[in-house]
Amino acid sequence: MLSFHLEPHSGEPLYNQIYEQIRERILNEELPPATKLPSTRSLAANLGVSRNTIDTAYYQLQSEGYIDSAPKSGFYVCDITPTDYRHQPELPSVPSPQSRDIDISSSASASASPEYLYDFDPYSIDISHFPFSVWRRLSRQVLMDDQSLFLLGDNYGDPLLRDAICSYVRMSRQVSCTPDQIIVGAGVDYLLQMLSLVFHSLHMEHITLESPGYTQAAHIFHNNGLTISPGILDKNGLTTASISPASSLVYVTPSHQFPTGVVMPYGRRLELLGWAKSSPDRYIIEDDHDSEFRYRGRPIPALQGMDNLRVIYIGTFSKAIAPAIRVGYMILPPELLAQYRLICGHYSCTVSRVDQAILTRFIRDGYFEKHVNRMRKLYRSKHDLVLDCLQPLIQKYHLTLQGEHAGMHITIRLPDTVSETALIQHARKQGIHLYGIHSHFLPNHTPVHPEEAVLLGYAGLTEDDIKKGIRQMTDAHIFSASALSRSI
């Protein structure tokens, strides 16, 4: 039986202490691959803790790819390359210069339409619980306290905001960076355009993206002259074997793949980092689009924290606060940062200094963390309600769920007998707006047997509308192959 040193009064959850100690032994090879772990029941009895505590620790280890389960057998240690990325090399300092005055169809979500009674939009968020009074008060304070905000500021973003972002991602996402590495811009789309200029200057003009994936990124890179290749997904995310030999860049969403919801495990992350490290001009773009919203265990650590020299980290406040805030940020490795300053350093920051100052205070004074915690609780309640309401449909129509326990949508994989297109058309006739996965495959990627699935977004709906919408699906036999054949 494994031995543990637990400190019940340390303030750190017991499940996290158990998780950390097992993870450490796996990384140190004290627990070699294929080692069977004690059952949750026996370990809980041995440690004198609840079985739920062990379940949570094992779930986190399994989510991150350190262990896996075998049906009716138990949990086993995964075969992981023992490279330890926890100790990062010191970042070389980059001198800060003085600041100076083919069409691809977009996958953006359709706007709400009166023809739909229930719109399960995977892009929508709930802004009804946003602390508007706090934001207004901070706005007044900012405008009264600092009139210099109406002058041009730092091209890379105001230093106080970059410092606040740096502290936040270090603590919440285990990202390794300094404030000087952070570039602030008006959303991810703008930042990807700036990156394209940098890539062209370095003759890195071929990129592999997940397919299905975030096709808006493909649209932007294509329009900026990069060549796009599709990367194939399996149960662990992007396969390194599918990365084009011509690519020096890869775009991934490892902590919660969009749209499938797959979490890239530790072993696959090591493979991907190994690909990047095999050549001096290879980089990984990590889009951490909804990392704040995970409903079981703790958030999955960022890939960037494993290698701060090969990963470009991109984040945004669009989902955590509001899309109209239009504040995104990227964290560049030192070599790319030097090139960015050379190629793009003369561009002014595209985010209003007033908005930057408000957001800085919102983060610094603890309002952002409080808001995220409130929204995580709210979205978890909606998420659990969706799962409860879907249970009869899952059993009746043999549906498979992906991406649950995180994010703002659930992916429903359909049986082979059900057509995604026909299902969406049938749902539309019932006043229900569903979103298919086919539109998220890259335009130049048509699988021989494409996955049939729909994305069920719940964040923008009230709990009452979730219940009514799924009840409408049930009554209309939305997932029934026979009903679909009659409707088309």
Structural class: alpha/beta
Which term fits the overall shape? globular
CATH class wording of the largest domain: Alpha Beta
Query: What number of domains?
Result: 3
State the helix count: 14
Sheet with most strands: 8 strands, mixed
Give me the count of strands.
16
- Strand-and-helix sequence, N→C? HHHEEEHHEHEHEEEHEEEHHHEEHEEEHH
Residue runs with pLDDT of under 50 for 5 or more positions = 96-112
Rg from alpha-carbon coordinates: 23 Å
Question: Strand percentage, roughly?
Answer: 5-15%
Helix fraction by DSSP (H/I, runs of at least 4): 25-40%
The CATH architecture of the largest domain can be given as 3-Layer(aba) Sandwich
> What integer is the average pLDDT?
88
The largest beta-sheet arranges its strands as: 4-11-10-9-8-5-6-7
CATH superfamily of the largest domain: Type I PLP-dependent aspartate aminotransferase-like (Major domain)
Determine the N-to-C terminus distance: 59 Å
CATH topology of the largest domain: Aspartate Aminotransferase, domain 2
Describe the 3D structure.
It is a single chain. The chain is of the alpha/beta class. The protein folds into three domains: 14-77, Arc Repressor Mutant, subunit A (Orthogonal Bundle), CATH 1.10.10.10; 130-365, Type I PLP-dependent aspartate aminotransferase-like (Major domain) (Aspartate Aminotransferase, domain 2, 3-Layer(aba) Sandwich), CATH 3.40.640.10; 370-487, Aspartate Aminotransferase, domain 1, CATH 3.90.1150.10. Helices cover 38% and strands 14% of the residues. The protein is built from 14 helices and 16 strands. The protein has helices at residues 14-27, 40-47, 51-63, 132-145, 159-173, 188-201, 215-223, 266-277, 334-344, 353-364, 367-397, 420-429, 463-475, 481-487, and strands at 67-70, 74-77, 118-119, 182-185, 206-211, 227-234, 237-238, 249-252, 283-287, 311-316, 328-331, 400-402, 409-413, 432-433, 435-436, 453-457. The strands form four sheets. Strands 4-11-10-9-8-5-6-7 form an eight-stranded mixed β-sheet. Strands 12-13-16-15 form a four-stranded antiparallel β-sheet, covered by helices on one side. Strands 1-2 form a two-stranded antiparallel ribbon. Helix 11 packs parallel to helix 13. The longest helix is centred in the C-terminal third of the chain and has 31 residues, at 367-397. It starts with 13 loop residues before the first helix and ends with a helix. The model is unreliable at 96-112 (pLDDT under 50).
